[in-house]
Design goal:
Ribosomal Protein L15, Chain: K, domain 2, about 5% strand, Ribosomal_uL15/eL18, ribosomal protein, Large ribosomal subunit protein uL15m, Ribosomal_uL15, 8 helices, mainly alpha, two-stranded parallel sheet, elongated, single chain
Amino acid sequence: MSGNITEKALSLLRGLPRVCLANLRDSPGARTQKRRGRGQHGGDKHGAGNKGSLQRQNYTRVGYETGNNPFYLRFPLEPYYRGHHLKRQYPPLSMLKLQTMIDTNRIDTSKPIDIVALCNTGIFHISPSEHHFGVQLTDEGANIFKAKVNIEVQWASEAAIAAIEKVGGVITTAYYDQHSLHAMVNPEKFFQRGKTCNTSFFYCNLYLYRNTNTT
């Protein structure tokens, strides 16, 4: 019976790790737990520094590199959209959409086509408050454009200019300031305010001339 117990004990010892300094436990009371310092020179910040995460929690925030400049701040910022909100915007108007307006009798080709005529269609919209500065005529549908028009825009591609001149039309580019655009987008609302035209006085008279001297 004793032989079986001895064999069992020896088999257990073979599977257990060897005793060494790495797996020895200290005697009770050999190490004292660190406590907060007391007194004039024993406490101060208690090793936690000034106000911050080290005083409020026992771990640092993610990305903190113990005083070093973190990696996400070492590289310069690339301002891709600097000044983007100040850039002039030109809402696009395709030649396909312009031909559709003409085919549906929303635009009269016997009269000059400008911002007033385009906004009166109810399809094309310009908002000067959103930094819109006019119309951009794109060449989409240039191969099917067949109307002879006299159109005034603020921006146009070479293909769009060639398509209009190919059928005998005329295209011109003109610049309007924000005051003039407010008057041309909705002339009725602009004149109902009863204010002076200021810088857009010339364009207001031009609009009145075009709409009162056509028969």
